[in-house]
Amino acid sequence: AGEKLEVKTLAGNGTKGFKDGEADQASFNAPKGIAVDSNDTLYVVDSGNHAIRKITSSGVVSTFVGDGTSGYSDNTGTLAQFSSPTAIAIDSNHYLYVTDTGNKRVRKISPAGEVTTLGSSLQFSDPQGIAVDSQGGVYVVDAGLFSIFVITPNSEISNPNNLLIGDPVFHTSGSKNGNGLGREPKMESYTARLAKPYGLVVLESSFETTRMMLTDLDSSNQRFRDIVVTRSKDDQGIYASISHWWTAIEGNRDGDFGLNPVLVQPALRYPYFLTSTGSADKDIYFSDSGNHCI
After folding, report:
1. Which residues lie closer than 8 Å to 164 by C-beta, 6 or more apart?
2. Cα 122 to chain center, whole Å?
3. Which residue in 35, 182, 199, 261 could disulfide with 88, CB within 3.0 to 4.6 Å?
């Protein structure tokens, strides 16, 4: 028996739709990523409605950006358009970052609801997870290229410059720990490979070091991979390494990660997106999609 958790519906009437209003009257269509700001306002990626919805601490739902139809338009509020957006992250200044998966782009949203395209020259294949560190570095998981890209405030925007982890030439998949490519002259080897990366969350971040957790799936294993990103003191270089992972088998079972053979290994099915409490204990919550559980 683990910690007892209470689950309750915060917003949504249980039917597919696109309606703003009080929590129990509002409707969504395939909601996915969620971010919370310092005022306890929730931002929900309403993927099926191609919009970002806003839920206040009092439970009122409104459409923050997006007009409910699939498209691509940088604009403000409901004049902007997205196509099947997936994940969302928020920085310390309340700017939102969204993987606009259908458009193969990353979008940035100001607190006033102005939508722009971040790194418009980057060529994504299947952008999924997204995270932001304490220095404004934005990390994008590309499941189609088996890679993680990073966009920093002072970086040149291009695929070679912004590739952090992955195969820079053939974009092959794999499950191997090691170094990422990064933007550091001394990092000449890039051995780390990803199988099918999806969700990404920052666990802790400072100027020099950011630690993240990634969900990475292959045909039989559901892995959580520990990524450490290091920034040079002159802020001119950034690189990553993956030193270890935790593996769950396919199935539906609670358990424990560890080397002790007495422990029962957890069984999961497609743990896609995850978030952290941000507290000292660094509890991580994730969607076990194939088992329809959190």
Report:
1. 139, 147, 148, 149, 150, 180, 181, 182, 229, 238, 239, 240
2. 17
3. 35
Residues 6+ apart with CB under 8 A from 20: 26, 53, 61, 62, 63
How far is the C-alpha of 179 from the C-alpha of 227, rounded, in Å? Answer: 10
Let me know how long the chain is: 294
pLDDT-based confidence at 234, cuts 50/70/90?
Answer: low
pLDDT band at 186, cuts 50/70/90?
very low
> Three-state SS for 239?
strand
The sign of the torsion formed by the CA atoms of 38, 162, 206, 279 equals: positive
Rounded Cα distance, 50 and 64, in Å: 11
C-alpha to C-alpha distance for 16 and 234, rounded to whole angstroms: 50
- Of 214 and 179, which is predicted with more confidence? 214
DSSP string, 52-70: EEEE-TT-EEEEEE--SSB
Residues sharing a CB contact under 8 Å with residue 93, sequence separation 6 or more, in sequence order = 111
Distances (CA, A) of 176 to 142, 180, 243, 287: 17, 11, 9, 24
Lowest mean pLDDT among 82-96, 98-112, 257-271: 257-271
Given pLDDT bands bounded at 50, 70 and 90, which one contains residue 187? Answer: very low
Residue 230: enclosing H or E segment and its boundaries?
strand 221-231
Q: What is the rounded (10 degree) CA torsion for 150, 153, 155, 157? A: 70
DSSP SS3 for 290: helix
Cα–Cα distance between 192 and 181 in angstroms, integer?
Answer: 9
If we measure between CA atoms, which residue out of 124, 108, 50, 116 comes closest to residue 83?
50
User: Which amino acid is it at 144?
Assistant: G
